[in-house]
């Protein structure tokens, strides 16, 4: 499958609803347990996604499309949610994510990106030269990766409870 | 986290809505592409989940709770969806899954399972002795595993489109 803007937006616009369906109203053990030391809980992951909406995707797309000479992105803070999420319930974070995503998809529309923009370049602080198409494909895959991660983290809470079925449940070994 | 019936039902009752949010209305490439030869597409996975609702979880729970002497389960057909899904749209399969799951959760309620039932046993044709608690934990983990799998299969469609970001997207290596 080659990059397609409207097919990427299909995924990006569905993620808030998917995360709501997956997480809203669950007991604390499902939301706050993680996979062990220095790993993230579903709650942590939603905070990370909120931070991405604020500082990553659209911000970087605008840098690529700008007329600035220096198109180097700010490094993304992978641990920002440790402070940013403080005092917020998962419900509040899901609402915040949903609102920010919807605003960002509006902004994306307003950028009126055409195929000739897809190969315009920016500079990633670690990865070097990247283009707009790669950024938008990564935004999409990043959503799917964190949906998979949340489901995996939750499944691990029952790792020993499944008994002998452990042998058939590949998710518990990932 | 130790097994808890109502916390398992939290997950089991949310899965249809999660799958609807994740998949309904997507373009064919997201729904019918897989990870390569002999792997499943999201469409295949929903067919597999439908078959599980028909032949696996509640059927086996009833065998465990029955007064039959022979409590050996029928082997589960992992490829039944290849025929069963024929001619059905993903929308139809999602509807079917949602309806069956809701019926099965009603049946589960009617079984009025108490803690003393949790350790009652059945015989898995391959894994040997298993108990009711393990069956219900497995049903829950099985849902989460397939949600993660669907997100992973979709993410892989953009494996090369993300360019250098491939290095940061663990989901593409699973």
Characterise the protein shown here.
The structure is a homodimer of 174-residue chains. Chain A is built from 7 helices and 2 strands; from the N terminus they run ααααααββα. With 174 residues, chain A is mostly helical. Chain A has a single domain, classed as Four Helix Bundle (Hemerythrin (Met), subunit A). In chain A, strands 1-2 form a two-stranded antiparallel sheet. The longest helix of chain A has 25 residues, at 132-156. The interface between A and B is large, with 55 and 55 residues.
Please provide the ordered H/E string of secondary-structure elements of chain A: HHHHHHEEH
Structural class of chain A: mainly alpha
Sequence of strands across the biggest β-sheet of chain A: 1-2
What fraction strand of chain A?
under 5%
Instruction: Tell me the CATH topology of chain A.
Output: Four Helix Bundle (Hemerythrin (Met), subunit A)
Counting copies of identical and different chains, the oligomeric state is homodimer
Q: CATH-wise, what's the superfamily of chain A? A: dinb family like domain
Q: Largest interface here, residues on each chain?
A: A-B, 55 and 55 residues
CATH uppermost class of chain A? Mainly Alpha
The count of DSSP E runs of length 2 or more, i.e. the number of strands of chain A, is 2
- Which consecutive residue ranges of chain A, at least 5 long each, have pLDDT under 50? none
CATH architecture of chain A: Up-down Bundle
Q: Gyration radius of chain A, to the nearest Å?
A: 18 Å
Largest sheet of chain A: 2 strands, antiparallel
Taking the alpha carbons of the first and last residues of chain A, their distance comes to 25 Å
Roughly what percent helix of chain A?
55-70%
* Backbone shape of chain A: elongated
